[in-house]
Specification:
Elements: H1 9-17, H2 21-28, E1 32-36, H3 48-62, H4 70-81, H5 86-91, H6 104-112, H7 115-118, H8 130-135, H9 138-143, H10 149-159, E2 165-168, H11 174-181, E3 189-192, E4 205-209, H12 214-219, H13 221-224, H14 232-238, H15 245-257, E5 259-263, H16 270-280, E6 294-297, H17 303-313, H18 317-328, E7 329-330, H19 334-355, H20 363-383, H21 389-409, H22 441-457, E8 461-463, E9 475-478, E10 483-489, H23 492-500, E11 511-515, H24 527-533, E12 539-542, H25 543-549, H26 553-564
Parallel strand pairs: 1-2, 1-5, 2-4, 3-4, 5-6, 6-7, 10-11, 11-12
Antiparallel strand pairs: 8-9, 9-10
Helix pairs in contact: 1-19, 2-19, 3-4, 3-6, 10-11, 10-19, 10-21, 15-16, 16-17, 17-18, 19-20, 19-22, 20-22
């Protein structure tokens, strides 16, 4: 069995299709709030590993030979918290950067769960937050941040309307940076540190940064620097600090009304456990509820996570703890889990779109088979996600954005287009939605399902091109003898617009355009040239009428294959 650290995106999808299907279905319906910890930023400098390494290097370079040197004393105290062995002590060379120490990973790993104690170490005559603000070089460390696959996936899930409430103990601005990278304003999130931040114009998603916000502390040091919660005493006093009362009330209400998925969060902080304990004291969740009310992304539950479950479920915990642990531990870390959840949400939405097509001849079995074809494409995509997960997340965002702009707007802009969600509401609210009838998405989703069936049953193979290229299609499909760029267009006008903007032209013989409505005949500009060259014009498929007239799924598939011409 794979571990949470070795599991692939496809294996994670298998979990979501199996023991955790209830969770994946509920997330597609907006039923879970995400609680995020430093684990989702661990491969960025702003992850706790990077913060701790930077801090140790700061103390190391400021330490002098004076036995009373306050920096040397602080450094020795922090290293002592990591309990280095005799051999590890020999590997610590204060003349060299921490990155060169052979024991670096082991030491940082032990300090990771003690970050608040580390940042509580004081330098005499300096401010209590000196190690955080100066030692970590807070302004530079947290001002320029490049989002990773996790942050992009969360951003897409938020734009899809399936994760609209998030709580994080992280200070960094990686989630906001991801939203910008997706082509949207960082004001998409209502970033909330105190109750004041909840006031004003409505936002699409709430992001509770209950331990403070680095970007705001940098922009408005006087107001937000004191609100950075890092030291043990701050975490302990947070529950009684009136500054955070409205945020506490909102988080307790969030725990009551939404299920919780914790990703990259060890739950070591006492204030987090206290919040869940407060909710249990006022008729909280029942551990038997389906899907599980509290789930951790973890290889195995740590003591702090078990403590949180204990206070959350109260008297029911002791007798049922092993069953609770099993239901609460999803063995996949942030990257594979979030990418799998994103693929599942997109596929679920596509299935709902395809279920609303006008195709009376298909029947229930035909619709089920089209849904299966979409699942097949999902799984094929997942198999290519693990080599470079950040590149995959970027490609998925860019590819879907280009396909949606082409389908609905008849445009194919240069460079990476802004992410264009399938729909801004959760999946279950899309069923029968009147506003979707004219978008062409229902027919496009059904066509994707047919392509998936052909890829599973024949020699067809799906692929994608560079999503930043104007002439990239939604999909590239090849057979043993031919290859085609597959474009989708909601209507005939959009086909003309795609040619006018340069997505393809009338001389491209590798283009198939699947139109959700009828298609008119087009007069070629130079028919004699075409006759001399023997080129075949782009194949324009009036797919909506094809669906409406299909006598059965088998008949539809045969007609579709003939029109695609592979």
């Amino acid at each position: 069995m794979p571990t949470a650290g070795t599991i692939t995106v496809k294996e994670t999808l298998d979990l979501l299709d199996g023991a955790f299907q209830g969770l994946s279905d509920s997330i597609a319906q907006g039923g879970y709030a995400f609680w995020l910890g430093s684990g989702i930023s661990r491969e960025r400098v702003v992850g706790l590993d990077g913060v701790l390494e930077k801090l140790i290097d700061f103390l190391r370079t400021h330490t002098t030979a004076d036995p009373a040197c306050p920096y040397g004393k602080a450094l020795e105290k922090i290293l002592g918290m990591a309990s280095p062995s005799a051999d590890e002590r020999k590997e610590i060379d204060l003349a060299k950067p921490v990155a060169t120490w052979a024991c670096r990973k082991a030491l940082l790993g032990r300090l990771w769960n003690q970050y608040s104690k580390v940042l509580s170490v004081e330098i005499p005559a300096e401010s209590l937050d000196y190690l955080l603000w100066v030692g970590v070089d807070f302004r530079n460390t947290f001002s320029n941040q490049n989002p990773d696959a996790e942050h992009l996936a969360i951003g897409m899930l938020a734009l899809e309307g399936t994760v609209t409430e998030l709580a994080t103990a992280n200070w960094d601005g990686l989630l906001e940076g991801a939203m910008k990278a997706l082509g949207h304003s960082d004001t998409f999130y209502r970033v909330t540190v105190t109750g004041d931040d909840l006031r004003g114009a409505a936002a699409a998603a709430k992001l509770y940064k209950f331990h403070g916000c680095a970007l705001r502390a940098i922009e408005d040091e006087g107001k937000y620097r004191p609100l950075l919660v890092a030291r043990s005493a701050q975490i302990t006093s947070w529950m009684g600090n009136d500054t955070f009362k409205i945020t506490r009330d909102q988080l307790e209400a969030l725990i009551q009304r939404a299920r919780t998925l914790m990703i990259g969060l060890s739950a070591q902080d006492e204030n987090i456990k206290n919040l869940f304990g407060q909710v249990n004291a006022h008729k909280g969740w029942n551990w038997k509820d389906e899907p599980a009310p509290i789930v951790f992304s973890a290889n195995e539950l740590g003591d702090d996570q078990k403590d949180l479950l204990s206070v959350a479920y109260g008297k029911e915990y002791e007798a049922n703890r092993e069953a609770i642990w099993k239901s609460a531990c999803l063995q996949a870390y942030a990257k594979p889990l979030l990418l799998a959840l994103l693929l599942n949400v997109l596929t679920t939405k596509a299935k709902i779109l395809a279920s609303d097509i006008v195709a009376p001849g298909l029947g229930d079995d035909g619709h089920a088979r089209i849904a299966h074809g979409l699942t097949h494409l999902r799984d094929r995509a997942a198999q290519g996600a693990d080599d470079d997960r950040l590149l995959f997340a970027k490609g998925l965002a860019g590819g879907l954005a280009r396909a949606r702009h082409q389908l609905q707007n008849g445009s194919s802009p240069a460079g990476l287009a802004a992410y264009f969600p399938v729909d801004e509401q959760p999946a279950h609210l899309m069923k029968g939605k009147l506003g979707l009838a004219s978008t062409g998405q229902r027919e496009a989703a059904a066509a994707m399902g047919l392509i998936g069936l052909e890829c599973e049953a024949t020699a067809w193979a799906p692929g994608v091109d560079d999503p930043a290229e104007i002439r990239s299609a939604a999909l590239r499909v090849s057979s043993a003898t031919a290859e085609a760029r597959i474009f989708f267009a909601a209507n005939d006008d959009n086909i003309t617009s795609l040619m006018e903007c340069g997505a393809f032209d009338e001389d491209d013989d590798d283009v198939v355009v699947i139109c959700s409505r009828r298609v008119t005949e087009r007069q070629q500009r130079n028919p004699r040239s075409r006759l001399r060259s023997g080129k075949i014009a782009p194949r324009l498929i009036a797919f909506g009428p094809m669906l409406a007239g299909a006598p059965s799924l088998a008949g539809l598939r045969e007609a579709f294959r003939d029109e695609v011409g592979l």
